[in-house]
Design a protein that fits this description.
Elements: H1 28-36, H2 39-48, H3 54-61, H4 67-86, E1 90-93, E2 105-108, H5 115-126, E3 132-137, H6 144-152, E4 155-158, H7 167-183, E5 188-192, H8 207-213, H9 222-228, E6 231-238, H10 244-256, H11 264-276, E7 282-286, H12 291-296, H13 302-320, H14 325-335, H15 346-361, H16 370-393
Parallel strand pairs: 1-7, 2-5, 2-6, 3-4, 3-5
Antiparallel strand pairs: 6-7
Length: 402
């Protein structure tokens, strides 16, 4: 990869992709001006920055002319502020696995709606490496100004509300765009290994995602298409998940009513909680590209190639987790063992128990019984135990707690 001093200056996005592509530099000034005129955007800024001088903030934002300046001069400082105030530090290793001059599909497990890709790009900013375009589902684009904001921040749209009869064409369109970005614009993309977050942190790659990447540019050459996507797995490890109690709440409500569905308000609140609440230590580990092993794979059918690609991604992500004391504690509680007792202290265990109790106290469901509270406790413990369980199953070497 090149340094940020030599960011791609490829021309405008072809018209066929304008419906899903980020805004290009020619649109920046007008789109930022429109964004600043939105009351919803001003409300969001004031929520995140209570002491902000909004008129001055708007004046500074109007000086932004292009993607590079927006991401480095606006999003970079904002993300550093989040790291300072909502984490115990953001770290990253494995960057040496990114070959200079090569663009990738960075594929990760999915912990936070907004911050997974944002923190990965912050790691790249800190190391003066090119940033990625980011896949985001249109189910999260509740307001027009949110669409403008994410497309200003180099996000491209994954259409999830299409009719079944149109789903294949939408997948072809998305696949063609991703391959265009990687192989013609020489830019990387980020995409989660599955639609939506794994509520129980049992991270498994959806076959439908890999099938989508295998559709273009030549639908009859799945292996060639997957190799052309240059898949590079990245493991994301958050010490604490601010949304753990909201996920436990969702499990409980679905237990009470299998037809329960979250509202748009629930999605917005999850986004706010993930962004603004405490996450402890956050670590990213860049794995090895899957192309070397995929090239050697003997299977030839579409299903064989898709399943092997999913296996390679899952193994890389599971082996790459950073394991924190709370993961060891949760594993031992779930499995009723003391297998990893050497990796945490009695104080760590007490602190984690108190943390879970505080999170359970925040669940705003009426008439929760003692049995239901224990059910939610078990679901939260599973969320923290599953990364370690998957790492053990994948043959990974568990980190010492740090």
């Amino acid at each position: 990869m090149t340094t940020t001093d030599n960011i791609s200056t490829a021309g405008r996005i072809p018209a066929e992709f304008e419906d899903i592509a980020p805004y290009d530099d020619s649109q920046y000034r007008s789109k930022i001006a429109a964004l600043l005129a939105e009351p919803g955007f001003e409300h969001a800024v004031r929520y995140v920055y209570p002491d902000v001088d909004y008129p001055r903030f708007a004046q500074e934002l109007l000086k932004v002319n292009n993607q590079h300046d927006f991401q480095y001069n606006v999003m970079g400082p904002f993300l550093e502020m989040l790291v300072k105030h909502t984490t115990a530090g953001l770290s990253c290793d494995g960057l040496e696995n990114i070959a200079p001059g090569q663009s990738y599909t960075f594929i990760t497990n999915h912990r936070d709606i907004v911050l997974d890709a944002s923190f990965l790009n912050l790691c790249f900013i800190r190391n003066r490496m090119p940033l990625t375009q980011v896949a985001i589902g249109n189910n999260l684009l509740i307001y027009d100004w949110i669409t403008d904001l994410v497309k200003l921040n180099r996000s491209f749209i994954v259409k999830r509300d299409v009719r079944i009869v149109d789903a294949l064409n939408a997948a072809r369109h998305l696949s063609a765009y991703i391959h265009y970005v990687i192989n013609e614009r020489n830019e990387s993309v980020w995409i989660a290994q599955r639609e939506g977050r794994a509520k129980d942190s049992n991270d498994l790659t959806q076959e439908s995602l890999v099938k989508m990447l295998g559709l273009a540019p030549a639908e009859d050459d799945v292996r060639g298409n997957l190799l052309g996507a240059h898949l590079l797995p990245v493991s994301i490890s958050y010490e604490y998940d601010p949304n753990d109690y909201l996920k436990a709440r969702e499990f409980l409500l679905r237990r009470r009513d299998p037809a329960y569905k979250k509202s748009q308000h629930d999605d917005l609140f999850s986004m706010e909680t993930g962004i603004l609440k405490y996450k402890g230590r956050v670590h990213f580990r860049v794995g090895m590209p899957v192309n070397g092993e995929l090239e050697l794979f003997g299977g030839t059918t579409r299903n064989e190639l898709v399943k092997e690609t999913c296996r390679l991604i899952d193994k890389a992500i599971h082996c790459g987790y950073h394991i924190f004391p709370c993961n060891y504690i949760a594993y031992d509680k779930v499995e009723d063992t003391r297998r990893f007792a050497a990796y945490y202290t009695a104080g760590d265990e007490q602190q984690f128990n108190e943390y879970i109790n505080r999170q359970l106290d925040r669940v705003d469901v009426p008439d929760v019984t003692a049995d239901e509270r224990e059910y939610m406790r078990g679901m939260i413990l599973a969320m923290y135990a599953n990364p370690l369980k998957n790492q053990i199953a994948a043959g990974g070497v568990c980190d010492e707690a740090f």
